[in-house]
Design brief:
Residues 1-23 form the signal peptide. Residues 60-154, 184-294 form the Rhodanese domain. Keywords: Pyruvate, Repeat, Signal, Transferase. It is an enzyme of class 2 (transferase). The chain is of the alpha/beta class and 300 residues long. It has two domains: 7-30 and 171-290, Rhodanese-like domain (Oxidized Rhodanese, domain 1, 3-Layer(aba) Sandwich); 35-168, 3-Layer(aba) Sandwich (Oxidized Rhodanese, domain 1). The chain is built from eleven helices and ten strands. The strands form two sheets. Strands 1-5-4-2-3 form a five-stranded parallel sheet. Strands 6-10-9-7-8 form a five-stranded parallel sheet. Helix 5 packs across helix 10 (262-274).
Length: 300
C-alpha cells in the first residue's frame, strides 16, 4: 500500500520549509479561487458604514474582544457554535445565535478571531452549514488590522438583531463511519490539519488516545496556510493549490478534512472552499477517531 506523504515539509522551494519527497513531478495546474471569500483590511475599512456589513469577532471568551476589536464588531462565543464533539447546533439554535450578532439573510459577514484565525474559520464553516450566502474571512485577522494602524475599540458594539433563515446543509459534514467506508475510495482524499508531530504519532495531542493518523490521509498542517506564524495573511492561491496537488487532491472529486479538533480542521475547510474544491468536514475529527475500536484503524 502506498504510504501517504507527510506534507508539512514538502515543496520546500515553494513554501520555504525543509525538504521531503514530493508526490508528483508534473507542473502544478493553474489554480482557481474564489476571491470573495477573503477581504483585506483596506476593503473592510471602506465598508464599515455599510448597513449590510456585519463584522464578527470570534473568541473562546470576551477577553481579547474587550481588549480591543474592530469598531462595530460583534462578539461571537465559540461555545455557541461548536460543541467539540461533532454535534452541531440545530437550526433553531443557530438562528438564535447568529441573529443575536446581527446576521441576516442579506448580510455581508466578515469574520476574524482568536487562535490564529481558526475560530473565524470555524464560524465560516458554520455559516456555510447554515446556508448563508455572503461571508468572508478578514485576511490577516485583527493582527494585520492593528499592524496597519487601523482603529480599534474597547466599547462593546450594540446593534439590531438580524433576521436569518437557517437552511442546514448536512452534506458538508461526515462522521467516522462515513470516513471509514470511504478512506480507500479513489474519488476521496483525506487531509489531516494537525502539526506533523501529531500526524506521525510522535506526539498524540490533547485528548487523543491512539497516536497517529487515519490510514491513507495526507498531512497539510493548518498553520501552513498563512504567510508565517506572525503574519496571518493567507498564502497565495498558487502556493495553497500546490499543497493540495501534492496531496493528490487535484485528482479527487471530494476533499475531506479533519484535525485534532473541528476548529483546527475548519481552517483547511476554508482553504479548500477558497480553492473552489468540493469539501466536507469530519467535524468530530481525530479525537473522536482515536477513541474508537480496532474497526477504525490508526497508522503511524
Amino acid at each position: 500500500m502506498r504510504k501517504p506523504l507527510l506534507l508539512a515539509s514538502a515543496a520546500a522551494l515553494v513554501l520555504g520549509t525543509a525538504a521531503c519527497p514530493i508526490a508528483r513531478q508534473d507542473s502544478y495546474p493553474l489554480p482557481q479561487w474564489n476571491s470573495s471569500l477573503l477581504i483585506s483590511p483596506e476593503r473592510l475599512s471602506g465598508r464599515l458604514d455599510d448597513p449590510r456589513t456585519v463584522v464578527v469577532h470570534v473568541g473562546r471568551d470576551r477577553a481579547s474582544y474587550d481588549a480591543g476589536h474592530i469598531p462595530g464588531a460583534r462578539f461571537l462565543a465559540l461555545s455557541s457554535i461548536s460543541a467539540g464533539d461533532g454535534a452541531l447546533p440545530d437550526a433553531a439554535a443557530l438562528e438564535t445565535v447568529l441573529e443575536g450578532v446581527g446576521i441576516s439573510d442579506n448580510s455581508r459577514v466578515v469574520l476574524y478571531g482568536d487562535m490564529q484565525g481558526m475560530l473565524a474559520a470555524r464560524a465560516f464553516f458554520i455559516l456555510d452549514y447554515a446556508g448563508h450566502q455572503e461571508h468572508a474571512l478578514l485576511d490577516g485577522g485583527l493582527e494585520r488590522w492593528r499592524a496597519d494602524n487601523r482603529p480599534v475599540s474597547t466599547e462593546a458594539a450594540t446593534g439590531s438583531t438580524g433576521t436569518l433563515t437557517v437552511r442546514p446543509r448536512p452534506q458538508l459534514v461526515v462522521d467516522a463511519a462515513w470516513v471509514n467506508q470511504h478512506r480507500a475510495d479513489s474519488t476521496v482524499v483525506l487531509i489531516d490539519a494537525r502539526p506533523p508531530e501529531e500526524f506521525s504519532g510522535a506526539t498524540p495531542g490533547e485528548g487523543v488516545t491512539r497516536a497517529g493518523h487515519i490510514p491513507g490521509a495526507y498531512n497539510i498542517p493548518s498553520r501552513t496556510a498563512f504567510v508565517s506564524e506572525t503574519d496571518l495573511r493567507l498564502r497565495s492561491p498558487e502556493v495553497l493549490a500546490s499543497r493540495f496537488t501534492l496531496a493528490d487532491a487535484a485528482q479527487r472529486d471530494t476533499v475531506v478534512v479533519y484535525g485534532r479538533t473541528a476548529e483546527q480542521a475548519s481552517m483547511l475547510y476554508f482553504v479548500a472552499r477558497y480553492l473552489e474544491r468540493t469539501v466536507r468536514l469530519y467535524d468530530a475529527s481525530f479525537t473522536d477517531w482515536s477513541r474508537r475500536g480496532e474497526d477504525f484503524p490508526v497508522e503511524r
